[in-house]
Amino acid sequence: MSVVVISGGSGLIGTNLTRHLIQKKYKVIILTRLGDRISQNPLVTYAHWDISKKIIDQQAIGQADYVIHLAGAGVMDKKWTKAYKKEIVDSRTKSSELIIESIKESKSNIKAFISASAIGWYGADVKHGLSSGGFIETDPPDNSFLGEACVLWEASTDAVTEIGVRLVKLRTGIVLSNDGGAYKEFKMPLNFGIAGILGNGKQMISWIHIDDLCRMYIEAMENNEMHGVYNAVAPKPVTNKKMILEIAEAIRQKFYIPVHVPEFALQLFLGKRSVEILKSATVSDKKIKSTGFTFLYPSIESAVEELTT
């Protein structure tokens, strides 16, 4: 039975990915700061780590056949103060360094290291222009906080290749899931019959259904031909307006009122984070599709239908 060690296993992606992995009979070890956690599932165990103290369960790493690195402070969770920006970067880069050092010390026979990244690597469509079908993996990083953070994040994992471990980085789009994240925020105003379109609603959203993202992580583990960076986005990006109205019709049928949330209100509420909410980013899925990966939910219509049934 193959063993997968996951950092950030208690987050939105980690909890769903764990479910997918145990369905495929993988044993999962979740790194956690709460060292005494006990799982009700015999295929899931917990191992202690503490990034700030540079502590990690060496035995857990030694058991690993695969490592999936998801750990990192939530980008939109808090105001982007200087201190929180540092936390966003450090929580990703220092955790990478800790895990990779542990891999080196344990001399474990890890087959692949799969790391999260984000499409925050790319700038806005209007800034860089579009390559055919959107931004591709070889496009340069954006000269912004998130662009620079993604560069540091991805670079922090490169050292694992020096010891012969296959490395895959998944630049993830907006994840759609009922368990949290952006989709939950998009749905919330519909409790009051309001479809909240952000800004002018014309900004392109490169998104992915949570189940397809989890399947992509497993594909990256199991497909030995996969190396380097892949965009983890669905084939059909949509405008914010299209996405919001699709969700509204699925949940409320015709009983809702479209309301544009003005840019100044978003800027007032979110500060610098509003840039990411209002940014149009069309990102290509061609490279991941070239591996043979197929999407269960390639369109926003199919994704929203699954999430509302």
Q: Could you describe the 3D structure shown?
A:
- The protein is an alpha/beta fold.
- It has helices at about 10-25, 60-65, 80-105, 125-130, 145-155, 180-185, 210-220, 240-250, 265-270, 275-280, 285-290, 300-309, and strands at about 5, 25-30, 45-50, 55, 65-70, 110-120, 165-170, 175, 195-200, 205, 205-210, 230, 240, 255-260.
- The strands form 4 sheets. Strands 4-3-2-1-5-6-7-12 form an 8-stranded mixed sheet, sandwiched between helices. A two-stranded parallel ribbon has the order 8-11. The chain has a two-stranded parallel sheet with strand order 9-14.
- About 40% of the residues are buried.
Helix content: 25-40%
Q: Please provide the ordered H/E string of secondary-structure elements.
A: EHEEEHEHEHHEEHEEEHEEHEHHHH
**Rg on CA atoms, Å:** 19 Å
Roughly how many Å apart are the termini? Answer: 34 Å
Please summarize the sheet with the most strands.
Answer: 8 strands, mixed
How much is the average pLDDT?
Answer: 93
Indicate the structural class.
alpha/beta
Low-confidence stretches: none
Instruction: Count every beta strand, where a strand is a DSSP E run of 2 or more residues.
Output: 14
Strand residues, percent: 15-25%
Shape category: globular
Number of helices: 12
As laid out across the biggest beta sheet, the strand order is 4-3-2-1-5-6-7-12
